[in-house]
Amino acid sequence: MYEPVIGLEIHAQLLTKTKLFCGCSAAYGNPPNSLTCPMCLGLPGALPVLNHEAVVMAVKLALAVKAKIHLCSVFSRKNYFYPDLPKGYQVTQYQHPIASEGRLRIGYNGSIKAIGIERINLEEDAGKSIHDHRPESPEKTYLDFNRSGVPLLEIVSKPEINSPSEAVEFLQLFRTVLQYLEICSGNMEEGTFRCDANLSVRKKWAQEMGVKAEIKNINSFRFLQKALEYEACRQMELIKAGKPIKQETRFWDERQNQTLPMRSKEEAHDYRYFPEPDLPPLVIPEKLIKRIKATLPELPQEKIERFKQKYKLPPYDAKILSASRDLADYFEQTAVESNNPKQSSNWIMRDVLQYLKEENMDISQFPLPPKYLAELILLVENKKISLRIAKEKVFPRMTGTRKRAGRIVKEEGLSQISDVSQIEKLARKTIKRNPRLVQQYKGGKVQVLSFLVGQVMKETKGTANPQLVNKILKEALNSLSDSSSSKRKKLNKLKQTKHTRQTK
Questions:
Q1: Is 24 helix (H, G, I), strand (E, B) or coil?
Q2: Total-model pTM
Q3: DSSP string, 421-472
Q4: What one-character-per-residue DSSP string does 243-304 give?
Q5: What DSSP state is assigned to residue 351?
Q6: In a 3-state reduction of DSSP, which class is residue 41?
Q7: Taking the CB of residue 314, how many other CB atoms lie within 10 A of it?
Q8: Which long-range contacts (CB under 8 A, 24 or more apart) does 98-101 make?
């Protein structure tokens, strides 16, 4: 039996206003090469000035993952040539990172597992190459240096992940942590959050590692899962066939659904690291670390546990509702307003999230404030409207018009009918209209009751209390059955008496 051994290298762009070593804007989506300066473009004589905000964000993450923060760290030059790296080197951290030896606890297969974090480096991003493969024109590559110099955190996990699904779980939670800290948008489509994966295969329980392959620039959770599954199978098949595994860098080709070789894997000496001469060592005062620690929010793992304890939510609900700070806040406000955490959870997880998915929007853009949803929940709970009316009529009207639930119910006459005499009258009317079904019910075919209930609900446009309709109809039908049975018994008794007299 073989098992994969996986380590991830995560690259997270920081949400700073400016770049790591200059005053250029770090905003996304501007016209190509509109956010550059001599420093971004690597022009001679340009000197870097470190962004304080980026250092604060790096310390935030280190504290969140219980990493050891190094009070003194050093920037280095990582030398390699690539068209969108204008200086010919990247300023990063190598032997002396800003933090190391952290951990992130993930819930996987019903248990908790701590994945080690080897190091957290602060570094600058490279520019972006845009390849033009249009058949009608010669192949060209364009360079956009807007991203050049944007601050990045490189997070290197320890090789302690043992399945593709576990890797996805780890990456998803890590993104959530970054978003909770408000230091990275986590937008994989924009490339602000991406990862490389290192995978090797070994016999289960063996200590020795296998030869690893690195899969570069994975920009979706689905691709990570598929790439790791494919690569694990590829390496296992090579081992079983007695063939060697090459240490190399590969990439995931989503069109062919396979990893393909890019180049042989570089070693550290290939990059000729040496200390950045234009930047002094980064010294972080302990007072600054204490101030940053005091600003840390409640993190997703802590929030999940609190939701389970305080609101008695199942683990699955707590995890879904803690997927973002905004969603968690929306749930809590709704739960407090309605005083019904479980129904608040049900409505958000089903109806609200479905609406957001259909409209392709975030919870921050949802048109209904928590108190509006809470009012709708209370109307159902207090039997002012039925759950069906709430879901099929009131909720869609609310999201479309942004009106409160009570106003919509009043304007459209959707209040639930719970008047016994009114429902009894409707029940008698329905029974009279459906003599064939009534006979079937008397004959023991009790499932026709559902159809008769539906007829009453249709008559009231869904506003009758369905439980009350069911109860009243059932009683009315049973009384008819009892009456028929009593008449048959009397008739049989009369026949028997007549027969006895004739015999005498």
A1: coil
A2: 0.83
A3: HHHHHHHHHHHHH-HHHHHHHHTT-TTHHHHHHHHHHHHTTT-B-HHHHHHH
A4: PPPP-EEEEEETTTTEEEEEEEPPPGGGGT-EE-TTS--EE--HHHHHHHHHTPPPPHHHHH
A5: I
A6: coil
A7: 12
A8: 98/55, 98/58, 98/59, 98/62, 98/69, 98/70, 98/73, 98/122, 98/282, 98/284, 99/58, 99/59, 99/61, 99/62, 99/67, 99/68, 99/69, 99/70, 100/67, 100/68, 100/70, 101/67, 101/68
Q: What angle do CA 435, 437, 443 make, to 5 degrees?
A: 105
- The first and second tokens of residue 268, run together, are 């550290």
Tokens of 247: 């240490």
Measured CA to CA, the distance from residue 490 to residue 484 in angstroms comes to 10
Q: What number of other Cβ atoms are within 10 A of residue 88's Cβ?
A: 11
What are the average pLDDT values for consecutive 10-residue runs of the chain, which has 504 residues? 94 97 95 95 94 98 98 95 90 96 89 94 94 76 94 97 96 96 93 94 86 91 96 94 92 91 75 94 97 96 95 94 96 97 97 96 95 96 89 95 94 74 75 78 76 76 73 78 55 55 54
Three-state DSSP at 323 gives coil
Q: Which two tokens stand for residue 236?
A: 């296992």
| Contact assessment for residue 280 and residue 49, using Cβ atoms and an 8 Å cutoff | no
Residue 40: C-alpha distances to residues 77, 87, 332 (Å) = 15, 9, 44
Burial of 176: CB neighbours in 10 Å, binned 0-12, 13-18, 19+:
buried
Tell me which residue of 8, 292, 14 sits closest to 153, measured CA to CA.
14
pLDDT for the residue 494:
53
CB 297, CB 325: distance < 8 Å? yes
Pairing of strands 111-124, 213-218: unpaired
Q: CA distances (Å), 409 to each of 183, 268, 293, 398, in order?
A: 43, 68, 48, 10
CATH number of 420-503: 1.10.10.410
Query: DSSP string of 386-404?
Result: -HHHIIIIIHHHHHHH---
Domain boundaries, the chain: 7-195+267-292, 298-412, 420-503
Cα–Cα distance for residue pair 280/75, rounded to 1 Å: 8
User: What pLDDT score does 418 carry?
Assistant: 65
Nearest to 456 by CA among 447, 445, 444, 467: 467
Residues 6+ apart with CB under 8 A from 13: 26, 125, 150, 151, 152, 184, 185, 191, 192, 193
Nearest-angstrom CA–CA distance, 234 and 424: 70
Structure tokens given for 371: 């108190």
Q: Which amino acid is at 115?
A: I
Task: Report how far apart the first and last C-alpha atoms of the chain are (Å, whole number).
Answer: 93
Contact 60, 151 (CB under 8 A): no
Query: 119: which strand partners?
Result: 100, 156
